Structure formats: structure tokens, C-alpha cells
Amino acid sequence: MPVFKLRLRFLNIFAVTFVAAFFLSAELPKASYIQGRVDVVDLSKDGFKPNTIDINQTLSKDLLVATGVKGRLESVSDRNYWRLGSDTMGIWYSNTSFWLQSGSILFCSQTKQEIQFSSLECNATFKGRGTIIIEATGNGGFKFIPLEGKGILTTAKGGSKEILGGRMLLVLGKPTYFGDAYDIDLMLLLRSSRLINAFPSTIPTFKKIGLAIYVQEINLKGKYDALIGDATTNENLQIWKFGKNTGVEPQNNHRSESKKGFFKGFFSKD
Amino acid sequence: MNKYLLSPLVLVSFASGQVNERVDSTIRALPSPTLEAASDTTSAGSTDAVASDTGAQRPLKLDSGISGQFGYDSRYSYKENPLGAPGVLDQQSDGVWENRFHGRAKLGVYDMDSSIVTPFLGGSWAMTDYTYKNADDLIPDLSALNHNTTTAYLLFLLQHESGWAFRGGVMYSNDRSTENDTEEYMEFYPSIGATKAYALSEQALGVIDASIGVHLGNIEDVDGPLSDHTDDELDHADLTASYSIIYSFDKFTVRPSYSLSYRKYENGFNSDRRDLLHHLSVHLDYPIAESFELSVFSDYSKRKSSGSDSQGDPYSSIYDFKKFSVGAGLGLVASF
Prior knowledge:
The complex is a heterodimer of chains A (270) and B (336). Chain A contains five helices and 19 strands. Chain A has 270 residues and is α+β, with helices and mostly antiparallel strands.
């Protein structure tokens, strides 16, 4: 009988350990697609030694992930979809928490989640679902660009803001607050974003992004001949004016352009 | 003997009789904002930006509340058989000048998760003038048929994430004689429809559209109670399917379109009448300025009727027609 009890206890411990390990590993993303050079540095070990990432490698909170000039990484799990752009550095503290040092990432979830995005200076919590691009800015904050989705973004000092497809929020400062919000051309973003287009798979929320583009189209009053650049400081956001004859110039003034169509751009293949 | 005798007395009666045929051959339909949006796309391409990981961030000016647009267009066309009449009258031709003021308000945008609902309230006022006088024509001067058309509509547009757009609404339409200042015809037209646009190539979109509705109208009963004619004899249900291609090059947009409409009449003289209406058209649009557009267009229609009236005469001898037009116009639209 003691032998039997011992075996039972051993089985219980094994089962608990196995289940815990299963759920712990489920919470951590894995590198499911790699393009170009992508390195990881194990911060739990002495010395800053980069190693090439392996496919299906678990991206634990001790691993600093860094992509090269043409390097990209994708992590797809049951619930979340992550993409790292080129020249990007960051750490997954868990499948619901990402720290972005530089570069840009895409997060996509079809179910309601609570995700923490942080950068050198800032921290914000997103509750909801959607397809979101996060781009680190020079001031240590980041741009929060929802392509589609529903939910709220909360910061320590700025409170909460409801997200809207195509409305970019600037996240700044420590403690974190919101800067200005800009409605940006989703169609143009979609067509020019490598986080969308440079991966072999299609993000699952593409139809919802199409709907967000449609909403922009029917609400459209005009387009500014300008492009938004980096937020170099909390007070300064680069806006680059472009014109038919002048090419790209720093901002002087804005000129609106007539309304363009929804379908042509959306269904174009480039 | 031909049913249209060339005596002065008969010619006088033509004017009133032809109102019926003109009204009956007029295509009235709820506007399809989805098709219009697809057509609007062509005049200028999106600004191309250098690709980056995040993508280009171009600021927009948006208005998510109530907004509207107001427009005016004027077009002149040569029309063969402008009345859509059968027999010898289909040799009639005229120069027709149409001027139209139109407006539409978007009453908000409602997010239903997998679809977006947008109500629209709109209307138009159009003047149609027959301008050409030709002594050799059966009716030398059609100006007695000049009329003004007023429309008003309430439309709900549901854009689904699948790409299909569904619409439902009701339109009121009214024709008034310019010469006599009398109402020639009025109708209510509740209908539903669906539209889907898809890419055929880099420059071309294909647009599928289908709709079904019921025309509930009232037309002056010129013969009084002594005949089979009634004021609701033009009431009918229609089922229409169409296919359009929207092709853009440089700033031009070409839109060939074909539609097939099945119509079923039940009332009065037209009980047991069924029509098949084929409509083929091509439009070429060129934006002269931001809200100013030049259009050249041509269309061809053909109607085949089946069934027979109470006397046993086939409807085909009364209602079959072919008509053709070619013309050009200018359009101006302002948004607010």
C-alpha cells in the first residue's frame, strides 16, 4: 500500500507539473515564421551574446529579440497574432505583454484580450480586440495605430480612450499620457505597410480592416498632402508636406485633396 | 392599317397617350451608393508612398456625423424613340436636354460589428425638355411632353465585411407636365438590393447588382371608366440584375453596364403582362476639376412584352420597343 500511495503522489505531482508547464508554455509566443536575420539575446545569462533565433523557439521574458535590416518575425498562437518589423528590438514578457525598444510591431486578436504595450518611457494597456500597429518613437513613446478593432487604451496619466480604426494615438511621457490623435489614411497604410504585406500569410482580420476603410471612405472630407513622421520629442511631431511639384518638404501648410474611392484602392493588388 | 393614323385629330391625342408610354418606359430605381462609390474611385489614384514596416501615415479630414452633398448636372442627348413607343413611333427622334439638381444627406454611420449601416435621405428635381422640331417626324414637336420629375428617397445601406452591400428603402417619384402644370404620374417604390464589387485587374472593378421592388403608382386615366385602362395599370413588380465594369486609365473612367429586368404587371389593362427589359449602356467620365466632371454616354434599351389584353391582342404589339441615345453632360457636386 505505501508503494501504491507513493506512486499516486508521484503521478499527481507529474500531472500538476505537466499541466502547469503546458499552460505556461501556451502563454509564451513562439517564432512561427522568420525572414532575414533575427537574433535573440538571453538576458538571464552573463554577457550580451546574440544568437540566431530558431523556428518554433519560445520567446521567453529573458529573450531580447532583435530583427535586422530585412529581418522579420511572426508568432501565431491560438489567440494572438504578432509580427515584428525590421530593425526592431523588443521583449515578450508574456503573450499579453510586449516591450518595444525600437521599430514596429503588429498585434492582432479576434477575441477580447488585455494586452500591455510598453516602450522606453511609456506604458499602456489595451482591453479589447483588433489589429494594431505599434511604432516606437524617438521620444521614448509609441504610436498606437488601430487598423480595426474595438476596445479601450488606458494610460496612467491620460485615462482611457476608445480606439477607432484608422485613428492613431500618440502615447507619451512618464507617467504616460496621450498626445494628439490623427485620423490616417488606412488604405494608404495598408498598401504601404510591410507588417501587412511582407509576410506570406494573411492576417485573419483583413475583412474587418476593409470595413474600417469603408467607414473612413464614407466619412471622408479630404486628405492632407502630408505624411506623419517621428515624434522626436513630446512636443514635436514631424509632419512632411508633399506636393505635385515639390516632392517631400517639411510642413508649411495643408491642402486637402478630393475624395477618392473605397473599392478601387481596397481591391487593387499592389 | 396602322393604329397610328396621321390625321390632325389623332396627332393631338398622341401627346396624352404617349405620356403613358413615356412613363412606362422610364427606368426608376433607388440609387445604389455602393455603385456610385465604386465609380468615384477612378478619377485619381491613391498617392503612392514608399513602403515601410508601419506604412505611410497620411492624415485625413473626417466627419462621422450627419453630412451631405448637393449637385447639379446638365446633359444633352440625341435620342431615338425617346418615348419608348412601339410601331411607327419608334422612328421618332429628338434632342433631349435634361437638367437635374440632386442632394443627399448621410444620417450617421452605425457599427454593427460585422457590418456598417448608413441611412441616407435624398432627392432630386429634374427638368426634361424635348428640343428638336422636325416636320418630317410623326410628331413634329414633342415639347408638349416636357416634364419635371421630382424624387425623394429614404435608403438604408448595409455594408457587410464580406464585401456585399445590401440596401433597402423607398422612393417617391413624381412627373409633372411643364406645359400644363399637371401631375402626369406618381409612384412609391419600395425595394431591396445587393451589390458586390470585386477587382478584375489593377485598373478594373466588376460590380454585380441585383434588386427587387414594387412600383405602386398612379397615372392619369385618359380614357375614363369606359375602358380597361385604370390609374394603377402601370403598377408592377420588378426583378433586376446588372453587371458593370468600371475601368480607369489616366483620369478617365469607362463604365460599360448591362442590366436585365423582369417586370410583372397585374392591374387593369395590363393584367397578365410580363416584360423583359434589356438595358446596355456605356459611360465615359473625366474629372475636369475637383468637383466638376464631364461625361459622355450612350445607352440602348429593348423591351419584350408577353401576355395579351382582354381583347386577346398580344401586349408585344403595344409595348415592345427599342430605343437608343447618345449624349454628353457636365456634373457638379459639392459636399458639406
